[in-house]
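Sequence in, structure out. Go.
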Amino acid sequence: MQLLKYATRSVLFLACFFLLGSGETHVRNQYTIVGYHPYWMKDNWKQYDLDMYDHVVFFALYVEEDGNFRSLNGWPMTWADLVLTAREKKARVVPSFTLLEAQKVNRLFSDPAAIARLKTNVMNAARVANADGVHLDFEMFEPISATAKANYTRFIKDIRTLLNQWKWGKELVVFTLALDPADAYDEAAIARHADKLVVQGFDLHWKTGPDAGPIAPVSGWGQRNWKNILARYDALGVSRKKLVLSVPFYGYEWPTATGELGSTTRGPGETISYSSRGARYASTIRYAAKERAAKFGLKRDVVSGSPYYTFQTANGWFQGWFEDQVSLAKKYQFIKQNGLGGVAVFVPGYDDGVLTAGLKQAFPGVR
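Output:
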């Protein structure tokens, strides 16, 4: 794909972005509330309580290893109403630039020409909608070269500089991993250039993982919990105020060897949204967690506080794990008790508004 060339398109539409200006940050006490709107949720953003969110992240503009875009997913033209409505609610709107394959990330940040191309494309895509900043989501669960690691950090620094040159106050938000098992990130250096780190607080038991268990446990379950995540970032010297922990409004249903907690899986899990709305929009979602739990019986893990259900068919045992108002309240309490920067929700539309009510109760504030 060639570099973005939007300048001649829909002049009136783009003028509306600039006339409205950038969103103003509203602070609920000292916390930042982020909501991710993925392209596959289409116009479901109209059902969101946008008054709740300081930042709306459009997910995603997918990046390729040559620094061009594989897909813009309609940004910005398709999302005009979302951007304008969020601005009216005084929320900041930030596009996410995303690459989820570690080896492609490695090749991208090993190629100076690709890096330069990506910087140009990122800034053009942000400027065309007068976005309030940039969200970078490059996920590496496998090792990358020392050169690529250093170049990714340098890229973040350069984007910070370019944002400042464009307009002071534009924000840089970077997604980072919970535990970084491949040591692919220099989180301390990244934090020096980013306004916020959205830290992976979910998928601590993941879709293709070897065992079933809570998606986002605060404690217990070995090293895969929020307490250990925070301890890791503390040891790296990252300011707690820069840490925005992410929570899932979804879960997984795994085929398991037994009905016992922590059972090994017999194959990859299936994504389940909290409510049936996720299934209506996401083609990969068939079931709603609250409906499955009502059918098979809601249980709660005493260690993590997370809800789950189990059932057995002729094909074997299954376990479904997700988050509800009770378990999410413990996570919000953890954020406040430990002086963290806020919370990020993926995906607001997966809950039919039920879980959003608990978020609002935990982080009250007048807009």
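Check: The CA atoms of residues 219 and 225 lie 5 Å apart. The longest strand covers residues 55-63.
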